[in-house]
Amino acid sequence: MKKDLLKSGIAGFDEILKGGLIPSRFYLVRGGPGTGKTTLGIHFLVEGLKNNEKLLFVSMTEDVEKIKQNGKIFGFPMDDITFLDLSPKSDFFYQ
User: Fold this and answer.
1) Residue 60 carries which DSSP code?
2) Could you say which of 28, 38, 76, 84 would form a disulfide bridge with 71 (CB–CB 3.0 to 4.6 Å)?
3) Domain range spanning residue 52?
4) pTM of the entire structure?
5) Domain assignment present for 18
6) What is the C-alpha to C-alpha distance for residues 60 and 41, in angstroms, rounded to an integer?
7) 46 and 53 in contact (C-beta within 8 Å)?
8) 22-58 per-position pLDDT tens digit
9) 49 in any annotated domain
């Protein structure tokens, strides 16, 4: 079974998980602002790039352009990731 596990892109995290994530499962990553949730997700997607997988990053709160800018600062290949921005725009709150 270990050979079928999905790598997270973070060796230490995969070690804690005893090899990686179980395929075909949903995972919820929870934490406050600045705890690394987005960075963990990008690491996972970059690992998928290595395997020529189709990638989709869905944002429901953070501005996609900000995510892309931050990722590029850290050297992530952000142009190779497809983004879907589902975050509400300001007019949603002021109608």
Assistant:
1) S
2) 76
3) 38-95
4) 0.82
5) no
6) 13
7) no
8) 999 999 999 999 999 999 999 999 999 999 999 999 9
9) yes
What are the residues whose beta carbons fall under 8 Å from the beta carbon of 43, sequence distance 6 or more?
Answer: 8, 9, 10
Average pLDDT rounded to a whole number, residues 62-87:
94
Residue 52 neighbours by CB distance under 10 Å: 6
| 26 within domain boundaries | no
Token couple for 63: 């501005």
Six token digits for residue 86: 């589902």
- Domain count across the chain: 1
Q: Which of 93, 82, 92 is nearest to 57 (CA)?
A: 82
And the tokens for 16?
């804690």
For residues 58-95, one letter each, b for 16 or more C-beta atoms within 10 angstroms of the residue's C-beta and e for the rest, the string is ebeeeebeebbeebeeeebebeebeeebeeeeeeeeee
- Bridge partners of 56, per DSSP, are 82
Which stretches of the chain are assigned E, i.e. beta strand?
56-59, 82-85
In a domain, 71, yes or no: yes
